[in-house]
């Protein structure tokens, strides 16, 4: 072990900074703001959060916790359960944290993932007291080599007063070299980000450390918690086919060639499954310029379909994790891990002309999308990067199954109960029913396309009925709504358990 | 006149292209798509639209009309009234067009102003048959010098099959030199936009013309239609003071120095009046990186407050127009006219770290903003550039008076009836009552700040009552709403003429 540590902790000036998790946790005081590494379970810190939760058994304290995105159980479960999180941002995705976010005992402000570094720069999260960051190694010349995510780690390390490091020897050495760390300067002296291709490397292989800010290094040996497996099903296969057929039509229309623009795909089961659909397509040499590198991206690599895959994290299921990390050399030369300020940057998304594929909870007849709040009130996870991508991509595509909860919920509703993406940012809507191409259409035209192409057949008549009612009230207006009935589907669901007008007893 | 034309039409190869407005109009066929110059009344084409409307008396035809933003009466009044506009985008602002947009006889898709060039590149507006563009001059080497706006003229000229030009001798020669034309390349070969300061010039002084595409040139002599005067009042003065005091607090908090970041201010009376408030402030050397250069910007120049003012158009009231254009040399060296793809580009807005000040029709207790649809259905103008700026600025500020219609309408409502800007993009809300700084706050915290600081006193109790009702239904959720009452204020307004719960008969 000692030899392994020497091999990983190569900066001699830091060797005397090794502390226990408990010692590291003891540096953190009530009321402090922490910037912690971790993006969608990957590369999060693991033992300091647990030690903090332990300490809470003796003395009450609370901290503000900012991360890249969601984390493994140590932050969003253990720390949440211990009641030591006062504020949380910019994203979460665990049951324990979600419960506290909803009841309001954790003050949660979800934010566009590309915005968080700017909020740090502005001091909106307060001065960050500690960056708490997982590392795979620290080089001779003081670069912190991150692990399976980059997320906000670079800006946290840069801006925090002090730095705590978890040096995790469980990660493969082969991770060294896949990171590309670039941090835009503060406003006033900021230059163009010099990335013009998804394959470009523009920064350093690690995060530059101010050695004097390093307060302690904890040695750990704990793998990332795998993500749940996300199997495809008949509907996601159909959605993938619908999407791919749409792209074929775009090629026929001359909008791009078979060398597709770089693709981004949102986190989670549906987007993952849709991306998997490219395996059996004619498309090859794919450039994946995304946020989270999920199972399907590695399946695409195994199928020889990928030119480059980049993102802010590598988040895999148990089985895929085993495959990938025990043969990491096979993938490494096609992988680039980027800070979320780069993976999600409007400047780059727009310059590269991405096709962005993100998941909707629900969409409405005019093309607005809810991606965060069930029935307008209950937070699921957060907006994440969907707004960064949908607003700036060449094609902003949202995917959702047309119905949920055994058909009791229509994913196409009269008006979304919470607005995360307005009609101006939703170019294309895909369900297993079909594809609604909304570009350039007026609202009244969008209604027909969305109901016709995307709604579940069980709800089509009911949607048309709503639209007729809306036109009776405001048909001479640009965007007819009957504000008294706009949420009637959601209130019916809450009262009867179904959005259907007449629930038949079978 | 002949001499004047020689002086303005300096490319000898184009001298034989001069045609009458009627001839030019005759080239335009039923079903064609036109990209016409014009941005907020400035620099629009004037005689070809009128000639088209005349032709419609003899033969029925319709065209699709895309512009920079809103236009003078020739397009959005005369052409609208003649019934010859089938589709319209991306923005309009005239009564005649608004009526047709709302009734649906003109198919209108409003869009983020920075998105329109990308939509043109993708062919979403169809292949553009004609660019119809106003010019101040055409140089010896074939550059079209635009007039008082740039807007989308460069992309229209570049992408359209043919070009029609209105060479308008009414404009001062001094306009030559204030344009800075830069058009990003198509995706795949696009490079960073090389602008790092508001003062930078990155392009050419005119739009490069493919001479073979020029189908005709019409000589005109008609000034722009002035915009209405936008007087300040007690409330806008107070809003300006509130905003300036907020900026002072930001300086005290160390977020920026007295050399303020570049400012953007939305179009229209309120934003114009708020900007005017800077005249009596300590701030100087202002960098105005905006969309429309309005009266107040020139008043600030007269007051010696401005280092540089740039935008996509110069849109002035009658009196100010007289002052500015008869002394244009006095202003010219501080002015830069940019294409809207540059003035509104997310890459640049974010790089420069703008303070963006835009106007809301209404905002809700969680910080969402409606800037387009009255009572959720009736289109006013369009989203314009507000989304480009609010999403990407360092500070996204929205301003609105706290009430309207003699107090019968509260501008702070339980839920906005149409969502243009979600809570993720609204950093700060300013009314004459005060300033709500929403950055980093959870939804439940935002409610208290917005009601306390921004709502009109007449509506505070009623807003709290709604929030209590919402908490009774969904208090254990992140963002409490009572979906049955969320729009009750709007439906009450429609029924009773007032949002107030009890309308007292006085």
Top keywords for this entry?
homodimer, 506 residues, alpha/beta, Glutaconate Coenzyme A-transferase, 2 domains, 7-stranded parallel beta sheet, 5-stranded mixed beta sheet, 27 strands, 32% helix, globular, Acetyl-CoA hydrolase (chains A, B), AcetylCoA_hyd_C (chains A, B), hydrolase (chains A, B), ActCoA_hydro_N (chains A, B)
Q: What features would you describe in this structure?
A:
The structure is a homodimer of 506-residue chains. The mean pLDDT of chain A is 96. Chain A folds into two domains: 1-220, 3-Layer(aba) Sandwich (Glutaconate Coenzyme A-transferase); 234-496, Glutaconate Coenzyme A-transferase (3-Layer(aba) Sandwich). Chain A is built from 18 helices and 27 strands. Chain A has a seven-stranded parallel beta sheet. A five-stranded mixed beta sheet of chain A has the order 11-17-22-26-27. By secondary structure, chain A is α/β, with parallel strands linked by helices. Helix content of chain A is 32%, strand content 18%. The interface between A and B is large, with 79 and 78 residues.
Secondary-structure blueprint:
The structure is a homodimer.
Chain A: H1 2-8, H2 21-26, E1 33-36, H3 47-55, E2 63-66, H4 73-81, E3 85-89, H5 95-103, E4 107-108, H6 116-122, E5 130-135, E6 137-138, E7 143-145, H7 153-159, E8 162-168, E9 207-208, E10 214-220, H8 234-252, E11 263-265, H9 269-276, E12 286-289, E13 292-293, H10 295-302, E14 306-311, E15 313-314, H11 318-326, H12 328-332, E16 335-337, H13 340-343, H14 346-352, E17 355-359, E18 362-364, E19 369-370, E20 373-374, E21 378-379, H15 386-392, E22 395-399, E23 403-404, E24 409-410, E25 412-413, E26 428-430, E27 435-437, H16 443-454, H17 457-474, H18 488-496
Parallel strand pairs in A: 1-2, 1-5, 2-3, 3-4, 5-8, 8-10, 11-17, 12-14, 13-15, 14-16, 17-22, 18-25, 22-26
Antiparallel strand pairs in A: 6-7, 7-9, 18-19, 20-21, 23-24, 26-27
């Amino acid at each position: 072990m000692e030899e392994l540590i020497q091999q990983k902790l190569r900066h001699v000036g830091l060797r005397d900074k090794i502390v226990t998790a408990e010692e590291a946790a003891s540096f953190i005081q009530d009321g402090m703001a922490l910037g912690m590494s971790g993006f969608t379970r990957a590369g999060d810190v693991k033992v300091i959060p647990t030690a903090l939760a332990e300490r809470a058994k003796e003395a009450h304290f609370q901290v503000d916790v900012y991360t890249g995105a969601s984390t493994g159980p140590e932050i969003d479960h253990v720390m949440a359960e211990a009641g030591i999180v006062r504020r949380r941002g910019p994203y979460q995705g665990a049951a324990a944290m979600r419960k506290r976010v909803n009841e309001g005992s954790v003050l949660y402000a979800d934010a566009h993932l590309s915005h968080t570094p700017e909020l740090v720069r502005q001091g909106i999260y307060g001065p960050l007291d500690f960056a708490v960051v997982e590392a795979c190694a620290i080089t001779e010349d003081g670069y912190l080599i991150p692990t399976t995510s980059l997320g906000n780690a670079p800006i946290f390390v840069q801006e925090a007063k002090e730095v705590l490091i978890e040096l995790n020897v469980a990660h493969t050495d082969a991770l060294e070299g896949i990171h590309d760390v670039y941090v835009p300067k503060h406003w006033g002296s900021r230059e163009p980000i010099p990335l013009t291709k998804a394959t470009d490397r523009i920064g350093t292989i690690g995060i530059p450390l101010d050695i004097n800010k390093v307060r302690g290094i904890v040695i750990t040996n704990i793998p990332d918690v795998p993500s749940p497996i996300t199997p495809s099903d008949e509907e996601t296969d159909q959605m993938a086919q619908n999407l791919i057929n749409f792209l074929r039509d775009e090629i026929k229309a001359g909008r791009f060639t078979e060398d597709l623009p770089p693709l981004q795909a949102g986190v989670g089961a549906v987007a993952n499954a849709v991306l998997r659909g490219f395996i059996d397509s004619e498309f090859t040499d794919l450039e994946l310029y995304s946020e989270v590198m999920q199972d399907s991206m590695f399946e695409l690599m195994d199928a020889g379909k990928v030119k480059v895959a980049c993102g802010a994290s590598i988040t895999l299921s148990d089985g895929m994790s085993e495959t990938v990390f025990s043969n990491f050399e096979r993938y490494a030369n096609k992988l680039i891990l980027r800070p979320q300020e780069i993976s999600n940057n409007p400047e780059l998304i727009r310059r590269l002309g991405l096709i962005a594929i993100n998941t909707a909870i629900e969409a409405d007849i005019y093309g607005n999308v809810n991606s965060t709040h069930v029935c307008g009130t209950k937070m699921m996870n957060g907006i994440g990067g969907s707004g960064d991508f949908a607003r700036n991509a060449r094609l902003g595509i949202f995917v959702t199954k047309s119905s949920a909860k055994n058909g009791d919920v229509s994913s196409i509703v009269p008006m979304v109960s919470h607005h995360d993406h307005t009609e101006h940012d939703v170019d294309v809507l895909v369900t297993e029913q079909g594809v609604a191409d909304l570009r350039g259409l007026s609202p009244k035209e969008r209604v027909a396309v969305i109901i016709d192409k995307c709604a579940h057949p069980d709800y089509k008549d009911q949607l048309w009925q709503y639209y007729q009612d809306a036109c009776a009230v405001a048909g001479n207006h640009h965007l007819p709504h009957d504000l008294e009935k706009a949420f009637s589907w959601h209130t019916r669901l809450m009262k009867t358990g179904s959005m259907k007008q007449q629930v038949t007893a079978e």
